[in-house]
């Protein structure tokens, strides 16, 4: 088989399971916030593989960490400690303010670990009737059956039931949360900014109210920081902006800078909830992924990437607001935090009407929901590349009927 783009696309269409909807492009290389396809065409990457490639592509520090670790030890399993994983756990606890870290391989697995931790915690206390989780409409928590039960969107759940044990209430509505509470509630689970649901930040005071409510009720607070965490919001965890410390945190996406790794973090009070044998993962915390995550966290602190995410976020918001002001009939709002920003189109427009032409103009972005263009560029991106992306968006919006 020839490796031309056309031949690769044809083979993909024949052999890959068709559960995605890719355009006929094959990417072969990246550098920072730029990508190249198999025909050598350059694209600007403003989505970073869904908020994952936080250091951009081919970052020297990450490449070196992975290569060096691959030459030493790639896999071991959790029968023994491995050096990068031990170092990573300590660094992750220090950065997040949490006490313990359990490692897995993805966001959905991190959520699964959170849910199992919470149930087993109450099981261990003899409170076996405390199992129910309150989650939110429009949320996204992953696609395994446990995480899917928590995901509050019909389009992901339909056809996979029965899914049980979760009550969904409107995001941001503390009264509805109070009504849904009961002695059987083990935890409240939420994203501090709903990502897939449309880049929707929680209203001011909501996280604090949930913290108080769970504490009073003897229930736990789980923060899904899979998309918002690891510095993207300008702080290590987005819930820090509200001064809230959850009991349990889920991380993944950006943690490995592109190498698959997820983590469940919790407080000391929960360290006995999952004793040996109750939960585990063959690949979880493997040396290769741990070395990658350690390199990401080192870059985050040494290169001041959280400060940078905050400053670049301000720059991007200002530029997007200018675009919104030029297209008031098409753009409703710009919202988000740091380098997680959403440009909300007005009713009657759909994100995909913009994303296609934008891709043809050489800019890659994703949608979050039907009407929201989601910006999740690498935290290392320059203002000039952000500017280039926003200018092209401006042109595409201008030519939209
Ligand atoms: C992406 C995402 C997940 C699922 O992560 P996967 O790595 O795709 O399993 C869970 N929660 C949130 C908030 C996410 O954005």
Determine Rg (CA atoms, Å).
21 Å
Which outline best applies? globular
Sheet bearing the most strands, described? 7 strands, mixed
Summing up helix and strand content along with how strands pair, one would put the structural category as alpha/beta
Average residue pLDDT: 98
Low-confidence stretches: none
SSE pattern: HEEEHHHEHEHHEHEEEHEEEHHEEHEEEH
- Distance from N terminus to C terminus (CA atoms, Å) equals 42 Å
Identify the bound ligands. Answer: pyridoxal-5'-phosphate
Strand order of the largest sheet: 4-12-11-10-7-5-6
Share of residues in strands: 15-25%
| Structure annotation, total helices | 13
The count of β-strands is: 17
Q: Please give the share of residues in helix.
A: 25-40%
Task: Explain this structure.
The chain has helices at residues 5-15, 48-51, 60-70, 83-96, 107-124, 145-150, 154-157, 174-180, 206-217, 287-302, 305-326, 351-360, 383-399, and strands at 27-31, 34-37, 42-45, 100-104, 132-136, 166-169, 185-190, 193-194, 200-201, 220-224, 248-251, 262-266, 331-337, 340-345, 363-364, 366-367, 372-375. The radius of gyration is 21 Å and the shape is globular. The chain starts with a helix and ends with a helix. Strand 1 and strand 2 (34-37) form a beta hairpin. The model has no long low-confidence stretch (mean pLDDT 98). With 401 residues, the chain is an alpha/beta fold. It contains 13 helices and 17 strands. The chain has a 7-stranded mixed beta sheet with strand order 4-12-11-10-7-5-6, sandwiched between helices. Pyridoxal-5'-phosphate (PLP) binds next to helix 5. Pyridoxal-5'-phosphate is lined by residues 106-108, 111, 140-142, 191, 195-196, 224, 226-227, 252-253.
């Amino acid at each position: 088989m020839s490796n031309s783009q056309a031949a690769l696309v044809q083979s993909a269409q024949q052999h890959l399971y068709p559960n995605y909807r890719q355009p006929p492009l094959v990417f072969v290389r990246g550098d920072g916030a730029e990508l190249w396809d198999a025909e050598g065409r350059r694209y600007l990457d403003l989505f970073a593989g869904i908020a994952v490639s936080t250091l951009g592509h081919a970052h020297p520090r990450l490449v070196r960490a992975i290569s060096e670790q691959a030459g030493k030890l790639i896999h071991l399993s959790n029968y023994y400690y491995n050096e990068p994983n031990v170092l990573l756990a300590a660094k992750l606890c220090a950065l997040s303010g949490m006490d313990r870290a359990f490692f897995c391989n993805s966001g959905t697995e991190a959520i699964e670990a959170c849910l199992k931790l919470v149930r087993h915690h109450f099981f261990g206390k003899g409170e076996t009737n405390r199992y129910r989780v309150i989650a939110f409409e429009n949320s996204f928590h992953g696609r395994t059956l446990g995480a899917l039960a928590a995901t509050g969107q019909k389009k992901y759940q339909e056809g996979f039931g029965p899914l049980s044990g979760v009550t969904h209430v409107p995001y941001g509505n503390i009264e509805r949360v109070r009504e849904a509470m009961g002695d059987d509630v083990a935890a409240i689970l939420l994203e501090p900014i709903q990502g897939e649901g449309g880049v929707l930040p929680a209203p001011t005071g909501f996280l604090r109210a949930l913290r108080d409510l769970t504490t009073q009720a003897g229930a736990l607070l789980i923060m899904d920081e899979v998309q918002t965490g690891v510095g993207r919001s300008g702080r290590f965890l987005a819930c820090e902006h509200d001064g809230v410390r959850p009991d349990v945190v889920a991380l993944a996406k950006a943690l490995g800078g592109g190498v698959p790794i997820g983590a469940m973090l919790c407080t000391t009070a929960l360290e006995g909830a999952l004793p040996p044998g109750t939960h585990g993962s063959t690949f979880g915390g493997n040396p290769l992924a741990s070395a990658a995550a350690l390199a990401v966290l080192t870059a985050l602190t040494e290169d001041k990437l959280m400060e940078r995410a905050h400053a670049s976020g301000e720059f991007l918001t200002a530029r997007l607001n200018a675009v919104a002001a030029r297209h008031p009939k098409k753009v409703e709002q710009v919202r988000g935090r740091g380098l997680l920003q959403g440009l909300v189109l007005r009713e009657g427009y759909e994100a995909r009407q913009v994303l296609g032409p934008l891709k043809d103009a050489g800019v890659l972005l994703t949608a979050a929901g039907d009407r929201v263009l989601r910006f999740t560029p690498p935290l290392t991106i320059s203002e000039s590349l952000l500017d280039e992306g926003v200018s092209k968006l401006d042109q595409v919006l201008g030519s939209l009927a």
